[in-house]
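So, could you explain this one?
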Amino acid sequence: MNQNLTAKFFPQLRGGLIVSCQAPPESPLAEPNIIAAMAIAAIGQGAVGVRINTPAHIQAVRQQRHQSNQTHLPIIGLWKQVLADYPVYITPRFGDAAAVALAGADIIAIDATLRSRPEPLKSLIERIHTELEKPVMADIDTLGAAEEAVAAGADCVGTTLYGYTAETQTYAPPGWELLETLVQTLKVPVLCEGGISSPQMARKALDLGAFAVVVGTDITGIDLKVQAYCRAIAPSSTGDSQ
């Protein structure tokens, strides 16, 4: 972990809630000002930081954060990119990271799984450190991926992609066992992200040693939450015939 890059924001994240403010591209919520409003509302209620996708949304959050005098709270920025030849998609290239940094992200999140990628992980992290002067959050799915990310220079790791890769697709997040193993094995902060669907689960993550907890869908995922409710209350085929 690069102490010079992490000293400003990491202490504020310890033991806190980071809210992932995102929306599906086709959603009416996927407007920069709406995402920014979610972020400022989250911070206003006690979140210690936010996680934001795309340069446009990051820039909007940065502007709103400045106007709300919340500049001391970090934005974890990323840019999801679907590449034809590679399965990694969270800020997969340095150019993506540079755009995220320019938009105003304080920490850059990248896909650090062991899947094939357009640029070597180590050089990507090194360039983010030296050229952008930003710390790196490595989104991983397994212990092996986490260890390689830390060896490559990642400043923290998140369990973000557990359950979302071919190697972990038979498991459902949150990965409590993975979280415990990471906390016991690594010497960098471990963030628990993915599958947290209640305040009690967030508390459990911290009790297991997570440095901070990231919650998205359960707080800001209106589209997915409404779909889930509608599926649950939809009349069954037998009920329709009565």
Q: What stands out?
A: The chain has one domain: 12-232. The two ends are 63 Å apart (CA to CA). Strands lie at 17-21, 49-53, 75-78, 107-111, 136-139, 156-158, 190-193, 212-215. The chain has twelve helices and eight strands.
